Amino acid sequence: MASIINTENTANNAKPLLPKLDFSDGSQELIVEFGGGLEALIKQEMLKNVKGAKQTNVKFPKQINKHPATIRDLIIHLRNFYVKEKPELFCTGDKVRPGILVIINEEDWEIVEDNSDKYDYELKNKDHILFISTLHGG
Amino acid sequence: MPRQCDICQRARAIIRRPKTGQRICKECFFHVFETEVHHTIVDGRLFSPGDRVGIGASGGKDSTVLAYVMKTLNERYSYGLELFLLSVDEGIAGYRDDSLETVKRNKEQYGLPLMIVSYEQLYGWSMDSIVEAVGRKNNCTFCGVFRRQALDRGALMLDLDHIVTGHNADDVAETILMNLLRGDIPRLGRCTEITTAGDGYMGRSKPFKYAYEKEIVMYAYLKRLDYFSTECTYSPNAYRGYARQFLKDLESVRPSAIIDIIHSGEAIKVSEEVQAQKPSSCERCGYISSNAVCKACALLEGLERGIPKLGISRSAKHFERQAVEPVHFERLREKAHEMRRRRMCGDSNPCTTTSCDDSCHGTTCACTTDDDGAGGCH
């Protein structure tokens, strides 16, 4: 897939909070999947169909501003560069829209300890991250 | 560091239950989810052995999981139910036609018979043609009213005892909020009931009344169930959308909010003066209605009358559609009753007795010839 650095000019409608990805501290490969209707919000050219799952490989820095990259950083990046329209249906600010489940490596991200923040999850190489909407249809 | 399951203390936790805050493993999750639905069914006394139960199936997450879980529980706990998939084709191109494909796959996957009834067939109007005629503003009203009746019509065609729908805890909480916000006190009193009378002939209930949407989606995901998730192409009900958003925002700060709202709704006692009028039947189609003409017939009449005004661009097809006269519910009920008689007796020995009055609705009808030769239904 195209390097994410080249996708700057496609983010017309979103203000990038995390403008250009800096890979000087190394990079990691993430598999990001969208389901439950969310896939319709994503630019189709970014998605590939893997056994019925709509997913994309994201090359992401290991560190952002000298801190390990977190899922919060990834969410902002996805909103800026992958969501084609109505970014508010994916997230507001840096929080995913209530009603969207986030599943990291087959685990609900809400199983974190009570005193820690699920948004601080530090990404690891080859992580599989699924965003799945509960809001569509019955 | 992997967290252990709060229930079995062995396996790795993979989901946090919104209702209880527990972190549990996959197997325990499947077990508690299914067992809770089982308890809802048993505590609510939803079915009797031998019941013919239709699962309202849209192909979406809720009804797909419902079909799977109903089939599983029916086998596990020997409910003795005969299960059917019952789908309504509203006639929305690019939406319902695709989701019905999912239902057809579910039919094969779960080995359940499927019946599809369409608006076009029942009323002579598809949703696409209704939207063409009335615009996008109030079309959800038509769809909601027609769907409810269509499910009852389909259920009578199959002679079902019961319909189950995939309404989940989030839906129920949302409806409580909506009724509160609209000041619809009679509905506020009714909407938390697990079983409603439906047509009066068969019951209608919500086995997922206490099941969170999050858990339903997680269940479908972890079981790799095949479901359809696309938004209806017509504009959704905006008011409901706000209620839903509000509820989801509440849930994100306090996950028990949904079940708490349901408990509040259940505890509200509506004073008798505001309770709904005694239901009677629609004078045109015989459907249960508190007015002389039911909502569906009133809407249909509006549609038919509106046609001439729609101008010359209307195709002849529309005039053909006018000819569709919804089948009177009394006829559907009679046919259902006849089917039941035949089933009870076996086709080879048709029950010809007339001693069975409709009051037993066939539920106690044994249709066997007695030793005393009197025969008939008891």
TrEMBL record, chain A:
Subcellular location: Cytoplasm
Pathway annotation from the record: tRNA modification; 5-methoxycarbonylmethyl-2-thiouridine-tRNA biosynthesis
Post-translational modification: C-terminal thiocarboxylation occurs in 2 steps, it is first acyl-adenylated (-COAMP) via the hesA/moeB/thiF part of UBA4, then thiocarboxylated (-COSH) via the rhodanese domain of UBA4.
Residue ranges the record marks as coiled coil: none
Keyword vocabulary terms for this entry: Cytoplasm, Isopeptide bond, tRNA processing, Ubl conjugation pathway
HAMAP family: Urm1
Protein name as catalogued: Ubiquitin-related modifier 1
From TrEMBL, chain B:
Any one GO biological process: protein urmylation
Signal peptide: none
GO cellular component annotations of the record: cytosolic tRNA wobble base thiouridylase complex; mitochondrion
Stretches assigned to the Cytoplasmic tRNA 2-thiolation protein 1 C-terminal domain: 281-310
Residue intervals of the tRNA(Ile)-lysidine/2-thiocytidine synthase N-terminal domain: 53-244
InterPro entries: CTU1-like_ATP-bd, CTU1_C, Ncs6/Tuc1/Ctu1, Rossmann-like_a/b/a_fold, TilS/TtcA_N, tRNA_thiolation_TtcA_Ctu1, UPF0021_CS
Pathway: tRNA modification; 5-methoxycarbonylmethyl-2-thiouridine-tRNA biosynthesis
Binding annotation for ATP: G56, A57, S58, D62, V88, G166, D171
Keywords associated with the record: ATP-binding, Cytoplasm, Nucleotide-binding, RNA-binding, Transferase, tRNA processing, tRNA-binding
Localization of this protein: Cytoplasm
Gene3D superfamilies cross-referenced by the UniProt entry: HUPs
Cross-referenced Pfam families: ATP_bind_3, zn-ribbon_14
PANTHER family recorded: ATPASES OF THE PP SUPERFAMILY-RELATED (PTHR11807), CYTOPLASMIC TRNA 2-THIOLATION PROTEIN 1 (PTHR11807:SF12)
Family stated for the protein in its record: Belongs to the TtcA family. CTU1/NCS6/ATPBD3 subfamily.
Functional description taken from the UniProt entry: Plays a central role in 2-thiolation of mcm(5)S(2)U at tRNA wobble positions of tRNA(Lys), tRNA(Glu) and tRNA(Gln). Directly binds tRNAs and probably acts by catalyzing adenylation of tRNAs, an intermediate required for 2-thiolation. It is unclear whether it acts as a sulfurtransferase that transfers sulfur from thiocarboxylated URM1 onto the uridine of tRNAs at wobble position. Prior mcm(5) tRNA modification by the elongator complex is required for 2-thiolation. May also be involved in protein urmylation.
Protein name: Cytoplasmic tRNA 2-thiolation protein 1
Naturally occurring in which organism (per UniProt): Coemansia reversa (strain ATCC 12441 / NRRL 1564)
Gene that produces this protein: NCS6
